[in-house]
Amino acid sequence: MKHLFTYNWMIRDEWFDLLADIPKKELTLSRTGGPGTILETLFHIVKVEHNWIRDLKERPISSTTYADMDDKLDRIRELSDRFHEEVREFVMGWDGSSEERILHLTGGNGNEIRCTHGEALRHIIVHEVHHIGQLSIWAREIGIPPVSSNLIHRGIMLA
After folding, report:
1. Burial letters for 12-26: b for 16+ Cβ neighbours within 10 Å, e otherwise?
2. Domain-by-domain residue ranges, the chain?
3. How large is the average pLDDT for residues 49-56?
4. pLDDT at 2 (0 to 100)
5. Distances (CA, A) of 40 to 44, 93, 142
6. Residue 159 — very low, low, confident or very high, per pLDDT cuts 50/70/90?
7. Distance between CA atoms of 124 and 8, rounded to whole angstroms?
């Protein structure tokens, strides 16, 4: 599972690099699916990952909103880097002892959430993969090749 988090983080950084030279107009254009725009989707990926980790740690989630990012890719990347320290520490420290521990909370939409810690971690992984797929489609729509989603040849499990 740790390898899949590492994979997601690598892919996310590659997306930040790829999108750095794309005009802001394209990054903020409302699109079909996902949270709406490329920037909102990146923010959503970063924020949701951090929120789940904070929930698993029984700590309050960040009050940071997309509006705080001022529609700027570099601000979202800075937030990602800042949140990453805490997320990485939690993920790399995961030993499976809390795998079956129950997490019970109320989601932002008011719905009750009840799952195991292991389920929550796996949800974080697939949530990002899902949204990266959306980014790949949108990249093609604006004429740029998407970041390769290939897990092989990244050396993640060889290190």
Report:
1. beebbeebeeeeeeb
2. 1-142
3. 98
4. 96
5. 6, 29, 17
6. low
7. 10
Phi and psi of 63, rounded to 5°? -90, 5
Q: How far apart are CA 6 and CA 158, in angstroms?
A: 13
Q: What span, in angstroms and rounded, lies between the C-alpha atoms of 11 and 97?
A: 28
Location of structure tokens 């909370």: 105
Q: Whole-angstrom Cα distance, residue 18 to residue 58?
A: 35
Q: State the architecture of 1-142 in CATH terms.
A: Up-down Bundle (1.20)
- The predicted model gives 10-23 an average pLDDT of 98
Report whether pLDDT(135) > 90: yes
Q: What is the mean pLDDT of the chain?
A: 96
Evaluate if pTM is beyond 0.90.
yes
Query: What is the chain's length?
Result: 159
The DSSP symbol for 37 reads S
Q: How far is CA 32 from the centre of its chain?
A: 19
